[in-house]
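HOLO CASE FILE
Compound: KG4
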Amino acid sequence: MEEKKDVLILGIESSCDETAAAVVRNGREVRSNIISSQIDLHKLYGGVVPEIASRKHIEKINQVIKEALSEAGTTLDEIDAIGVTYGPGLVGALLVGVAEAKAIAWAKDIPLVGVHHIEGHISANYIEHPDLEPPFVCLVASGGHTHLVIVKDYGEFEIIGRTMDDAAGEAFDKVARAVGYPGGPKVDKAAKEGNPHAMEFPRAKVGGSQYDFSFSGMKSAVLNYINQAEMKGETICVPDLCASFQNAVVDVLVSRAVAATKEFGYKKLAIAGGVASNSALRAGMKAACEKAGIEFYYPSPIFCTDNAAMIGAAGYYEYINGVRAGWDLNAVPNLKLGER
Ligand code: KG4
Ligand code: ZN
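Model generated. Tokens follow.
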């Protein structure tokens, strides 16, 4: 019998403020996962500054790729294909990864695969769950996206719900900023000390699909609460506020994701994206899935936030499906899931 050849993918990710490269074997085994984060730099400005992000990616990308190859104990000569994020994201940031991937692919005659960033987030679930195969439902909640997706097959998606306004992570970031924290993970941490039922924030219903989301009303209610307390000279219990806000977000995410999984008749539910590392979301999903008899999957936190191992995993399935990018591969800032 002919032995199946291993496929090594070099994944490259630069869509926002993380410069990342990884080597992934057969879509599931992470040989290396290098992430150079710019968070501290952008913190000074209260959000990601696109021009600074692009410049930092240029400074870091060669070194990050070099480290990913050396930590994996391999060289470009052994890489079967390069998977690179080409959208959605910041155009200048994406272009750095795309140009780099094209240059290496051209110089070393390596096949090139363009990867959708959200497909990457979803594929992070394959890394630690060798048993997970499509079809399944995936909730993708990140700083830029909140999508409920049916993963019909590798590379085949149907979006059944999306946010009508803010992404879940964006709401976390804005509430975090209002209480003086730099981002979602700090709200998660503070919430552990708070009472999730101390304050009631609205769980918005939206007009479109019953699986669509809206977080801007919830976010405004929290900001109003803070303003009113400040005007009255009252001190706010920040842990209670964080726990109550987080509880409202988690409630909406869990109930819609589980309802969709049941209604569409699937037995498996996965979560992905930065917000998927939220401890209350993970606990809430686990409990609700157990109750509903649904198998629940989630990546380790390091594979939830932006990384290149997830791009290597997604790139593998695209590669074995015969997908190849040409030298005209470009950054597509508003790339839709399932589009090429
Ligand atoms: O997936 P990601 O790294 O980047 C995008 O593709 O957007 O997600 C980043 C988002 C940020 O909004 C961040 O505040 C949020 O994920 N996030 C969290 C947690 N960790 C990251 N939100 C809530 N709880 C967390 N533990
Ligand atoms: Zn992301």
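CASE NOTES: The beta strands are 8-13, 18-25, 29-37, 81-87, 112-116, 136-141, 146-153, 156-162, 268-272, 295-297. The longest strand covers residues 29-37.
CLOSED: yes
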